[in-house]
């Protein structure tokens, strides 16, 4: 993949999809069984990126997954719309470094239904076809006998072509050396269950494609890619003779955690409007101008690109051109530095449109993201299908409230982050705003509820849908030292038990070398791993000697048949392995150690040999590595040491990495978190928070939230909306504000994000993350800034003790960063506090048996707060 590291959930999906496809291919070739399944992920999850990784694996193999390539794999990609196919084709070329334009072919059709002069589809190729091409009156739909019918009529073949699409499809399916995979992209029109009323109708195009017809056999393997699994499951209910495999469903919360989707969706509902109210147009324009300023300021940071955000003006299906012209007049008057000709439309008319004095060109929806000269886009409703535009950050919609499902779909298309990552600490750059003048509280609540869930129907905890939110900015009266202290605090993440430490180290080395931090880092990483492997050979000499014997020995049995006595017997034999057997064992070890490390270590072992004996030395080195691959202790030792080396490099070069800017720092953040152990990363400074200002009540009305002073981010009046989870929290804020040198408090965000402090804890054999509620800042007598964690902690839940143990362990390792680390609970009407900076208290906490209640812990070992 081109400069792309798959997100954790994308890697998991890759493994699951490839496993399904390989099983399906084996069962097809061995038993003729046909299989189907789907990949379901929320919009913006990177389904095309996952597909590209799958295709690379199918075509060329994947050493990390220990999967060989399939030289006979053929992909047929089907979607409703040719423009979607073009968008997918371009995206595949963009992210893959192995799949080229030559490997991807668009089936366009030709005169007489003949699409090309090929008998079968080419292996290791992706063919794109859309629904219209296979309609009954389409260019490719007339069946494989059409050429013969044309010849009988005296119509000549064109360039000697005699194969229709259906001919080629049939021949490909029937070739035992090829494996055809159909990919159904998204939900398709025409995929419906048949009812009694339409039982006599012809099968739909997709059903004919899946089930076969006439002499065209059914497809062997069907893989659906969709934002919701229901459409694909519904289609396959009518598929004949298919076995279903487990669907691959991506957890929506993991997609939100990844930073690929915007964290905040702001729904702005003005109290009073008129059609094309000038106030609303000006409001939308001011918001896109604010977003533009924020992106321009961000672009001044090291290595940060400039994003040009987009304002989408959505109008009714029959708009008044004059009213649109007035809106554009106001936009240009308000946005004084907006360049002339910065407006486009995506109306179905596909021609230039005149709005007042403005002539506005048409642009196809899939081009909007890349055509950065477009800063204002005028749309009706067609834009919601198959369109992704991450830089669209403000939507002003004059659609009526009855279109709330349509608005929900459209907002779902606008949630991708422009840089495919979260901007640390900046809610405004991680948000999209929709101004919905014709929506009431009830309707907009339905939209908000729908947007809180992903394609799997599960809540997306990291996403916030806010109604009429406000910006909270860092207080101007706080010293810079406070934020420097904040940025130094270590935050932990959930470890990855399935990570491969050796590829992680070599990827880290590649990044450090590319950024000029460690010249020749790749060579240095390999040299370190060579030392580890040398040490491993000394550590496990007996195990290695036994493995060497196994590599050099081929064991087998000979069947002896005594014809006269009608007896059979087996005799075991041993023979010396030849070069081919040793190379086969070496290939398996390459996958265990990583191909690059195995290659460089083989060269290292053979480097002392004479030139004349070089081939023999290299073969002996391959045998040694093959043997080492058979010793589990050596593999475990290598991976453990690779993890330590990577972690030490990340710590050693932490300051240099932080100076690279957010884009590069995010790469290292991912590498830091892709670890088998919780590895702390510094917090990112919050630049602004978007927060709600009112609480929605069960009757649909809103109650304004109380506000408090002292938060380190605040509104212009110095206040912050405070949504208290309990009376304890109010007591804590009141008491902490009275401490000497008090500077302010920070409400720690409850979701995974760079400005949220996370602390790991163990529960039921799994590592989880607790995010303490509050951090408090004080200026000490010597002028130094001190920070304290104070976590009002309920004792009524099953995770209460594991979380306290996690805080205690964190205090053991990182307590020197803090003045206090305290966990609070109410016992018999009094607030009790566990001082986790105390070694004695930590010892008691860690020795408390799992499953015990924590009230006694607070009562016997805590103090009064």
Output the keywords:
single chain, 865 residues, alpha/beta, Rossmann fold, 4 domains, eight-stranded parallel β-sheet, seven-stranded parallel β-sheet, 37% helix
Residue stretches low in confidence (pLDDT < 50, at least 5 long) are 143-161, 187-203
For the record, the CATH architecture of the largest domain stands as: 3-Layer(aba) Sandwich
Count of helical stretches? 26
User: Can you say what the CATH homologous superfamily of the largest domain is?
Assistant: P-loop containing nucleotide triphosphate hydrolases
Account of the protein in words:
By secondary structure, the protein is of the alpha/beta class. The protein has 4 domains: 8-250, 3-Layer(aba) Sandwich (Rossmann fold), CATH 3.40.50; 256-468, Rossmann fold (3-Layer(aba) Sandwich), CATH 3.40.50; 480-492 and 683-864, no CATH class; 501-680, no CATH class. Helix content is 37%, strand content 20%. It contains 26 helices and 36 strands. Strands 1, 2, 3, 4, 5, 6, 7 and 8 form an 8-stranded parallel beta sheet that branches. A 7-stranded parallel beta sheet has the order 11-14-10-15-16-9-17, with helices on both faces. It has a 6-stranded mixed beta sheet with strand order 29-32-33-34-35-36, with helices on both faces. Strand 20 and strand 21 (567-576) form a beta hairpin. The longest helix is centred in the first third of the chain and has 24 residues, at 8-31.
């Amino acid at each position: 993949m081109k400069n792309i590291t798959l997100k954790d959930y994308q890697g998991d999906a890759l493994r699951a999809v490839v496993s399904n496809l390989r099983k399906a291919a084996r069962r097809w070739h061995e038993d003729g069984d046909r299989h189907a399944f789907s990949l379901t992920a929320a919009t913006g999850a990177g389904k095309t990126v996952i597909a590209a990784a799958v295709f690379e694996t199918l075509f060329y193999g994947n050493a990390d997954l220990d999967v060989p390539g399939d030289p006979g794999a053929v992909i047929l990609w089907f979607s409703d719309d040719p423009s979607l196919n073009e968008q997918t084709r371009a995206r595949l070329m963009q992210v893959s470094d192995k799949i080229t334009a030559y490997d991807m072919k668009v089936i366009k059709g030709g005169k007489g239904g003949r699409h090309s002069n090929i008998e079968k589809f080419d292996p290791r190729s992706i063919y794109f076809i859309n629904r219209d091409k296979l309609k009954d009156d389409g260019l490719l739909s007339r069946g494989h006998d059409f050429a013969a019918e044309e010849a009988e009529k005296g119509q000549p073949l064109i360039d000697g072509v005699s194969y229709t699409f259906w001919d080629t499809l049939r021949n490909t399916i029937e070739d035992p050396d090829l494996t055809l995979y159909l990919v159904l992209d998204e939900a398709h029109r025409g995929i419906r269950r048949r009812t009694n009323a339409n039982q006599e109708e012809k099968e739909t195009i997709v059903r004919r494609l899946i089930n076969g017809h006439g002499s065209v056999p059914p497809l062997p393997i069907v893989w659906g890619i969709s934002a919701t699994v229901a459409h694909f499951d519904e289609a396959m209910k009518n598929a004949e003779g298919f076995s279903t495999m487990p669907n691959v469903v991506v957890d929506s919360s993991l997609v939100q955690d990844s930073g690929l989707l915007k964290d905040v969706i702001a729904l702005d509902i003005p109290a009073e409007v008129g059609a094309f109210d000038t106030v609303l147009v000006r409001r939308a324009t001011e918001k896109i101008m604010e977003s533009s300023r924020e992106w321009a300021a961000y672009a001044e940071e090291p290595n940060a690109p400039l994003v040009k955000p987009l304002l989408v003006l959505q109008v009714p299906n029959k708009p008044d051109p004059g009213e649109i012209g007035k809106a554009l007049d106001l936009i240009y008057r308000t946005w004084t530095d907006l360049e002339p000709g910065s407006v486009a439309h995506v109306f179905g008319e596909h021609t230039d449109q005149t709005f007042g004095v403005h002539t506005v060109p048409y642009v196809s929806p899939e081009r909007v993201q890349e055509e950065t000269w477009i800063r204002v886009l005028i749309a009706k409703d067609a834009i919601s299908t198959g369109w992704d535009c991450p830089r669209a950050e403000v939507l002003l919609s004059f659609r009526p409230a009855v279109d709330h499902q349509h608005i929900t779909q459209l907002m779902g298309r606008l949630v991708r982050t422009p840089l495919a990552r979260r901007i640390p600490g900046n809610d405004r750059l991680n948000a999209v705003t929709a101004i919905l003048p014709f929506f009431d509280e009830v309707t907009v609540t339905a939209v908000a509820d729908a947007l809180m869930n992903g394609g799997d129907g599960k809540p997306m905890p990291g996403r916030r849908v806010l109604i009429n939110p406000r910006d909270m900015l860092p207080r101007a009266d706080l010293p810079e030292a406070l934020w420097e202290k904040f940025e130094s605090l270590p935050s932990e993440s959930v470890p990855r038990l399935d990570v491969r430490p050796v590829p992680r180290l070599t990827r880290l080395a590649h990044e450090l070398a590319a950024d000029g931090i460690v010249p020749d880092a790749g060579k240095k990483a390999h040299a370190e791993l060579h030392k580890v492997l040398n040490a491993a050979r000394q550590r496990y000499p007996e195990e290695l000697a036994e493995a060497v014997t196994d590599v050099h020995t081929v064991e087998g049995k000979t069947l002896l048949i005594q014809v006269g006595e009608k007896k059979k017997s087996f005799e075991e034999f041993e023979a010396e392995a030849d070069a081919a057997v040793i190379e086969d064992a070496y290939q398996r070890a390459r996958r265990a150690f990583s191909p690059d490390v195995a290659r460089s270590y083989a060269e290292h072992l053979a480097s002392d040999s004479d030139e004349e004996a070089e081939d023999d030395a290299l073969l002996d080195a391959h045998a040694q590595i093959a043997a080492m691959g058979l010793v589990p202790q050596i593999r475990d030792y290598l991976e453990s040491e690779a993890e330590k080396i990577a972690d030490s490099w990340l710590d050693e070069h932490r300051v240099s990495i932080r100076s690279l800017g957010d884009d590069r720092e995010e790469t290292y953040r991912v590498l830091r978190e892709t670890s088998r152990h919780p590895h702390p990363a510094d917090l990112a400074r919050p630049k602004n928070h978007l927060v709600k200002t009112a609480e929605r009540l069960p009757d649909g009305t809103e109650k304004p939230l109380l506000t408090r002073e002292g938060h380190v981010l605040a509104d212009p009046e110095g206040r912050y909306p405070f949504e208290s989870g309990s009376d304890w929290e109010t007591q804590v804020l009141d008491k902490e504000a009275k401490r000497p040198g008090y500077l302010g408090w920070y409400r720690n965000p409850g979701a995974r994000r760079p400005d949220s402090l996370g602390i790991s804890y163990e529960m039921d054999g799994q590592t989880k993350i607790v995010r303490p509620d509050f951090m408090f800042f004080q200026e000490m007598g010597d002028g130094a800034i001190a920070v304290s964690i104070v976590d009002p902690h309920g004792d009524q839940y099953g995770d209460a003790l594991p979380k306290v143990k996690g805080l205690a362990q964190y205090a053991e390792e990182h307590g020197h960063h803090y003045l206090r680390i305290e966990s609070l609970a109410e016992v018999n009407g009094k607030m009790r506090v566990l001082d986790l900076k105390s070694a004695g208290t930590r010892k008691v906490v860690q020795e408390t048996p799992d499953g015990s209640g924590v009230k006694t812990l607070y009562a016997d070992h805590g103090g009064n707060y």
